[in-house]
Design brief:
Elements (H helix, E strand, L loop, with lengths): L4 H8 L4 E2 L1 E7 L2 E7 L2 E6 L2 E8 L3 H9 L1 E6 L5 H7 L15 E2 L7 E2 L4 E13 L2 E13 L7 E3 L2 E3 L6
Antiparallel strand pairs: 1-11, 2-3, 2-6, 4-5, 5-10, 6-9, 7-8, 9-10, 11-12
């Protein structure tokens, strides 16, 4: 018996996650998408995972380039999350509305984020409608300051420190 996807989606609304933009470039094409299925899995070697839906342009570019950039968004970047999630009118190039930079792999990183990770894919795993990418972080920047954009129950939130 297979669980109805809507039941899982409803249950997952109780899980809070930070918001990132994952982006890749291959030849003259680049694309990115909002992703919250991201986690650090090892500090030595430096490894993270992301999960991308197979039928997306970003997935295709990550598969071709075997690299991606990940930007952790701040509360001031809700509009960027919406843009890369496809919630705003799409232009041919989502990056035409944001400033970017690159580190080692040439993958786009969104300027103004809280931190950035430049990654090379080391393993891929079929995960139903998605691919799970395990990637080595080859460069990273961030100072740990600022307010992260949080996604919970289909809306954006900010953090509040418990006393």
């Amino acid at each position: 018996m297979t669980l109805d996807p809507e039941s899982l989606r409803s249950a997952m609304r109780a899980w809070s996650a930070g918001v990132t933009v994952v982006a890749a470039a291959h030849e003259n094409d680049r694309h990115g998408m909002t992703v919250n299925s991201f986690t650090s899995i090892s500090l030595d070697p430096a490894l993270i995972t992301i999960s991308l839906q197979k039928n997306t342009r970003t997935h295709d570019l990550v598969m071709k380039s075997r690299a991606f950039g990940l930007t952790i968004l701040s509360t001031e970047q809700k509009h960027i999350s919406d843009l890369f999630a496809g919630r705003l009118p799409e232009s041919e190039d989502r990056f035409s509305q944001v400033q970017t930079e690159t580190l080692l792999t040439g993958s786009p990183l969104v300027t103004g984020g809280l931190s950035w990770m430049d990654c090379r894919v080391v393993h891929t795993y079929d995960a139903g409608m998605n691919t799970l990418f395990v990637a080595e972080v080859v460069a990273a920047r961030g100072i740990g300051e600022g307010e992260p954009l949080i996604y919970h129950n289909r809306d954006y939130w900010t953090l509040a420190k418990l006393k």
